[in-house]
Design goal:
The chain has 151 residues and is an all-alpha fold. It has helices at 15-50, 54-108, 125-139, 142-147. It is rod-shaped and about 85 Å long.
Length: 151
């Protein structure tokens, strides 16, 4: 049999898991970015607060405004990128977990799930082969099952 392309449409597989993971990663990156922003803006804020000379104060204010103009768009782009990347990455996890759950449901109903396949870029490929081995062990090869009178 030749190569069969994966024709599943792109969508969220487990919205709660995928959005939850993206939200957690977003919060972590926001906190780390906040710490970085404090380091970036701290010298300008210090100079604005401590300067008494109007010339130094004007330069510090210009630097502070320039930082705002350059840093905030980059921060927003990074946050959006992290969120989108997390949704894409979580799909590689949620898809196999959904398939594993379906196979386990079939095994609980004494059905033979057949070949367990994941998409090429999904994670947990070794788990798919373990599930196939478990299914074979529980149900035996198809010929044995027919000879023993089991469907």
């Amino acid at each position: 049999m030749g190569y069969r392309p994966d024709r599943r449409a792109w969508s969220l597989i487990d919205r709660k898991f995928q959005y939850g993971l993206a939200f957690r990663l977003f919060i972590a990156s926001a906190l780390l970015s906040l710490a970085g922003l404090v380091l970036v803006f701290a010298p300008s804020v210090y100079h604005l607060g401590a300067a008494t000379d109007p010339e130094i104060l004007e330069k510090a204010a210009e630097e502070f405004l320039l930082l705002h103009k350059r840093v905030w768009p980059a921060v927003l782009l990074c946050f959006a990128g992290v969120f989108i990347y997390c949704i894409i990455l979580s799909r590689r996890i949620a898809g196999p977990i959904c398939r594993i759950n379906a196979v386990l449901e079939q095994l609980l109903q004494d059905k033979r799930p057949g070949k367990v396949t994941f998409r090429k870029n999904d994670w947990f490929h070794p788990t798919a082969s373990l599930l196939e081995r478990l299914s074979s062990k529980l149900h035996g090869p198809p010929r044995e099952r027919e000879e023993n009178g089991r469907p």
